[in-house]
Write a structure and sequence with these properties.
single chain; about 325 residues; D-Maltodextrin-Binding Protein, domain 2; six-stranded mixed sheet; five-stranded mixed sheet; 11 helices; globular
Length: about 325
């Protein structure tokens, strides 16, 4: 065969092979999903992220037509389960329920086994999680203003419990102190349950907590909710103002829950799941379930979550640096 013709024939065969592979990949994406999906929650059963995932999973399964299996892989402040997803095949069959520490905080405190801004494809912002400022009845504090007045008169006397150094509650407290010009004595605990227990017992004065963790205690009068650390009031605590309303405009220390996949997941798959999440979040029973957990459904395109990851990472890096936060 003429060398030129042979070369042309080889090029044609190669082009056909590439076209076949491209067509096969396109068909695979069009057929997505065609097998069960693994939904990793990087925390233990019963955690806020776990509750969110278990509300979403059956609804998304009905829309996508495949089982969605929630898998709890807790440990290392969410890093273990999150790394599993970072290393998974980017085929749309492994998801992670992400939230603040694992994606916008921890990388500024310690070396992480993944890059939260490069190793993931944002899919959808699921919900925001308002934090509330609570006080022990033993503290005698009945308002944010009373807290600010007392803290300014006696710096470092009032104790602020948190679930640990560098956690969302700790950073919320640092933002509060910087905003109000106060100084509270930070007491880190091994977890949020321990922190709230000591506030209940009067061994600590204050705590920033997700609403779901303290709502029943507040309604029973065992804790005093001084203010909502989010832009709007909470329906089940209608008489409690936002901290922003009390003379600190823009105060917002809300946490968030989001859905992510490994980086490199085809955009068509990312968009399909993102659209499905937005559809689920509009369902009245889902909104009711989220409200009972103290979270606000959001939804939106992948870009919205991507922008939040960038802005929150920058924000918390600055708070950590200015407060001089270190982890043991």
């Amino acid at each position: 065969m003429n060398p030129v013709n042979a070369a042309l024939r080889s090029m044609a065969v190669a082009a056909l092979a590439v076209a076949a592979l491209t067509t096969h990949a396109a068909h695979a994406q069009d057929a997505y999903p065609n097998r069960p999906i693994r939904f990793v929650v990087p925390f233990t059963p019963g955690a806020g992220t776990d509750r969110t995932a278990r509300v979403l999973a059956p609804k998304l399964s009905a829309i996508l037509g495949q089982p969605i299996v929630v898998e709890n892989r807790g440990g290392a402040s969410g890093a273990i389960g999150t790394e599993i997803v970072a290393r998974a095949e980017p085929d749309g069959y492994t998801w992670v329920l992400g939230h603040d520490p694992a994606f916008t905080i921890n990388q500024h405190l310690r070396k992480m086994p993944y890059d939260p801004l490069k190793d993931f494809a944002p899919v959808s912002l699921i919900a925001t999680v308002p934090l509330v400022l609570v006080a022990s009845p033993a503290s005698g504090l009945d308002s944010v203003q009373a807290l600010v007045d007392k803290a300014r008169q006696s710096p470092d006397k009032l104790t602020m419990a948190s679930s640990g150094n560098g956690t969302s509650g700790h950073l919320a407290a640092e933002v509060f102190m910087a905003t109000t010009g106060t100084k509270l004595y930070h007491v880190p605990y091994k977890g949020q349950a321990e922190a709230v227990t000591d506030v209940l017992a009067g061994r600590a004065d204050l705590n920033f907590s997700a609403i779901a963790n303290v709502l029943s205690l507040a309604q029973a009068g065992r804790l005093k909710v001084l203010g909502i650390g989010a832009p709007k009031r909470f329906a089940d605590l209608p008489g409690v103002p936002t901290i922003a309303e009390l003379g600190y405009p823009g105060f917002d220390v809300s946490a968030w829950h989001g859905l992510l996949m490994p980086a490199g997941t085809p955009p068509t798959i990312v968009r399909r799941v993102s659209d499905a999440v937005s559809e689920v979040l509009k369902m009245p029973d889902v909104a009711a379930a989220f409200a009972s957990q103290g979270v606000d459904p959001v939804g939106g395109p992948p870009e919205r979550l991507g922008q939040l990851l960038q802005s929150d990472s920058q924000r918390w890096a600055e708070v950590i640096r200015e407060a001089g936060i270190k982890t043991e």
